[in-house]
């Protein structure tokens, strides 16, 4: 009898150890989409899985190196993994890190865009040939004789690819001049101004962003698909002499955890593997944050309260019930 009781205690102990979550550190990156996801993870891990979760400041390279060398933080909810690809792959090979799934299911999205209201009037403007045909709709802010294409701000990495694709698409020959908006605020402001006046706008932008959540834009199809090799070896290189046309490939955006966290808290780790946002969801959430001057914690509460059908798909029913109870008590 004593032997059987001891065996039951041993099995129970193993079960508790397997389900134990304990202290968990989560990287709170310094951009809006990442801080939203970090706050969502903190709330769900705390109230759904019993973790003692803490947010710690983070950024792509410092967080990646710290996870590799120190084993902390436990979770990086949103890493644009192409920026640290070699380090991350080495971490996985050495069983220090795990890719836990895609935090943005669509990946980071870049492209050349036009307003939805223009496409409604002229459906062919959704293609680059249609943009060229209707180039006069995209009035240059400083010249009535030219059409305007808003590029990426000077000094940003995307300026190289935007400029190379401007040349590859032969937009200058179609009457366009490349405009440097001066800053991210200048670029987003030009879209807001065009929208307020329902004028033409054509240029570079990316997602997820509050801007594409507030202003409905259509990504222009260049008709050539994605040539990833061309993009990596020429489009993104400053010394690319003969750029060819390609669409922007999506940027991989993953959640990454330490191997220790994944091993000690398999149930919590499984949640991280399932938690993912589409760009449309995140665009809308970021727009809400901007309109309401909300921080990550407020955005977390807004998202979880307003979208139960979305986040409940990430967790078992008993966990969803605990999280719902915690939300109701706030």
UniProtKB/TrEMBL annotation:
Record has Signal as a keyword: yes
Example of a GO cellular component annotation carried by this entry: ATP-binding cassette (ABC) transporter complex
InterPro entries registered for this protein in UniProt: ABC_Gly_betaine_transp_sub-bd
Keyword Signal: yes
UniProt keywords, alphabetically: Signal
SUPFAM superfamilies xrefs: Periplasmic binding protein-like II
Segment forming the signal sequence: 1-17
Domain ABC-type glycine betaine transport system substrate-binding intervals: 23-305
UniProt-recorded Gene Ontology molecular function terms: transmembrane transporter activity
Protein name per its UniProtKB record: L-proline glycine betaine binding ABC transporter protein ProX
Species lineage: Bacteria, Pseudomonadati, Pseudomonadota, Gammaproteobacteria, Alteromonadales
